[in-house]
Amino acid sequence: MFSLALAIGLMGTAQDAKSQLKLPSASSKQSLTQELGIGTIELNYQRPSARGREIFGQLVPYGEVWRTGANDATAITFSTDVQIEGKPLSAGTYGLFTIPGEKEWTIIFNKNSEQWGAYTYNQADDVLRVVVPTHTVNTPLETFTISFDDVLEQSLTVGLTWANQRAAFQVSTDQSKEILASIQEAMTGDKKPYFQAAVYFYKNDIQLDNAAKWITEADKGNNKAPHIKYWKSRILAKSGDKDGAIKAAEEGIAMAKSADNTEYIRLNTQALEEAKK
Questions:
Q1: HSE-up of 223 (CA within 13 Å, CB side)?
Q2: CA-wise closest residue to 55 among 100, 104, 116
Q3: Each residue of 220-240: b (16+ CB within 10 Å) or e?
Q4: How far is 156 from 172, CA to CA, in rounded Å?
Q5: What is the dihedral sign for C-alpha 216, 218, 224, 230?
Q6: Cα–Cα distance for residue pair 187/72, rounded to 1 Å
Q7: So what's the pLDDT on residue 178?
Q8: How far apart are CA 168 and CA 177, in angstroms?
Q9: What 3 state SS string does 111-144 have?
Q10: Where are the extended beta strands (E) located within 59-101?
Q11: How far is 61 from 130, CA to CA, in rounded Å?
Q12: Is residue 161 helix, strand or coil?
C-alpha cells in the first residue's frame, strides 16, 4: 500500500520532470551585432519557418502591420544617430515593424520595442516610416532571415527575406566630425596613431598632406612591415609624390620577398605599377 508520503513524493518527481522538459522552439531566437562606423547595430528577433504554408498575402497579410518575425516584436538598437533611407533616426532601441505589400514594404521604427507581436502596436508611437520596394528571390527561403549586407565603413543594407520575397533598407551614418575629433585628441598622446589616421584620411580622400606626413612617420625605422610600405606608396601617389610612391613600393616588395610574404609581394607590385603610370 502506498503511503501518503510516497504518493506526494511521486507527484513531486513527476512535476520536477515536467519542469525540466526542454523542447526546440518553433521559431528560434537570433541576436545579431554589426559595427557601423564607430557605432554598432544590435538586432533581436525570432525566425518563423514556412513549413509548406503560403507566406505573404496569406500567413502574413498584405497591407497589415507585421511584427517582422515571430512571438516578441523584433527589436533593433542603434548606438549612434543614423539615417534610414536618408531620413534621420536618433540613437536608441526601436520595435521594427513592417507592412508587407506585393510591390513595396513600409518599414516602421516604433518607440515601443517590448511588446508581443503587433497586438498592442500603436501608430502614434512610430518614430519613422520609410517605403522600399520588394523583390522576388530566385531561391525561396524556408526560414525568415534578417541580414546585414553590403557593409561599408559608414553604410550597410538590412535585408528582410522570407519565402520568395525580399525587402531591404539602407542604414548610413556620418560620423566624420566625431572621428576627426578622436584623431586630433589621439595625436596629443604619447602613442600617436600615425598609420591608422593616415589610412583613414586616404580612404576618405581628406587632408592628403597630413596623410603623407603621418604615413612617413609611421614608416620611420620600418624594416619588417611591408604593409606599411604598401600604404605609404598608395598615399604618396594620391598626394602627388610619384617618386616617393615608387620608392616605397620597391622597398615593400624587397621586404615582402625577404619575409616570403606573397600577399604583400603582390600588393606592393600592384602599387608600384599604379605609381609608374
A1: 1
A2: 100
A3: eebeebbbbbbbbbbbbbbbe
A4: 6
A5: negative
A6: 46
A7: 84
A8: 28
A9: CCCCCECCCCCCHHHEEEEEEEEEEEEEEEEEEE
A10: 75-78, 82-84, 87-89, 92-99
A11: 19
A12: strand
Q: Is 188 helix (H, G, I), strand (E, B) or coil?
A: coil
- Residue 106 to residue 99: CA distance in whole angstroms: 5
**Do residues 268 and 233 touch, judged by C-beta distance below 8 A?**
yes
CB within 8 Å of 169: residues ≥ 6 apart: 84, 85, 107, 130, 132, 157, 158
Residues 101 and 160: beta-carbon distance below 8 Å: no
The C-alpha cell of 127 is what?
518614430
pLDDT for 1 equals 47
The cell for 152 is: 561599408
Nearest to 169 by CA among 105, 113, 117: 105
Q: Which amino acid is at 257?
A: K
Q: Which helix (H) or strand (E) holds 157?
A: strand 155-172
Please report, rounded to a whole number, the percentage of residues in the chain having pLDDT higher than 90. Answer: 80
Confidence class for position 174, pLDDT limits 50, 70, 90? confident
